[in-house]
Design a protein that fits this description.
The chain has about 325 residues and is of the alpha/beta class. It contains 11 helices and 12 strands. Strands 7-8-9-6-5-4-3-2-1-10-11-12 form a 12-stranded mixed beta sheet. A hairpin with a 6-residue loop joins strand 8 and strand 9.
Amino acid sequence: MTQVNSTKSLTDRFGRTVDYIRISVTDRCDFRCVYCMAEEMKFLPHAQVLTLEELEQVAAAFVSLGVNKIRLTGGEPLVRRGVIKLIKAIGKMDAELAITTNGSQLEGMAGELKQAGVNRLNVSIDSLQAERFKEMTRIGKLPKVIAGIDAAIAAGFDRIKLNAVIMKGRNDDEVLDLVNFARHKGIDLSFIEEMPLGHISEHNRAEAYCSSDEVRQLIEQKYALQPTTEKTAGPSRYYRMPESESRIGFISPHSHNFCGDCNRVRVTVEGRLLLCLGNEHSVDLRAVLRRYPGDMEKLRQTIIDAMDLKPEKHEFNLEDEPQIVRFMNMTGG
């Protein structure tokens, strides 16, 4: 395991402390969700992708700088060959380890992930109708994902949360079905406003946009939502419902901007330290890792210096061409 001593923490120009890192381990995915990727995708050559060892060094450097939560993302992180080795290494670090997954690999991997040190899982699921699910993912099979969710529940993770992107005319009629599913399973559910990353010709984001307030109104037709002060390290704002342990969260980059207390940065699969999801401010960590192999102090100082580039906020405009041309699978979910 990579070990370094902690002597500093990460604070940006606006006084925000960064204690949460999302690391993309692959840009590849076995789904092609309509809001995330184009149907025909070109993936990065292997030489441009950080190795598992480099990813471990990045995680260790951030933990030494006070980061206490790491989320592994993709693409679909569980399709990366050898990823369990990386997960075991990070699982031994002094940080909570979470993974965001589409659930396709969970049925066979949930127990192994729990043993490797994963504390929390987020599973993306936008529809409970098999044909619609296949249409929205272009490839995915709903029964396989549900079997994966059940396997994760049986494995006993600290917390499991479903993520659903709600779009008008696509799946907005399933909001209550998704809530009922989460209640039945005894797990959490977050509804996410779509983020305009990458140009997808067959998908009109402005027409499909469904705000968190609209989703909340749909839920309150059946369930009273009580705001709670509970927080994870992420941007969800949580509500409780009567007679249920499930929490309902809302991630609202458009309607309720959460930039003021942003504590997160991302590392993309090719090693870009991305200081904001909705901006292109970044630093090339791959160049540092390969120019100064094994020099953890150089890597740490590069990360510290990068905090000055973190912008105050993002500006998303659904009516225009996307300001950010990279797709979500390149960014890390």
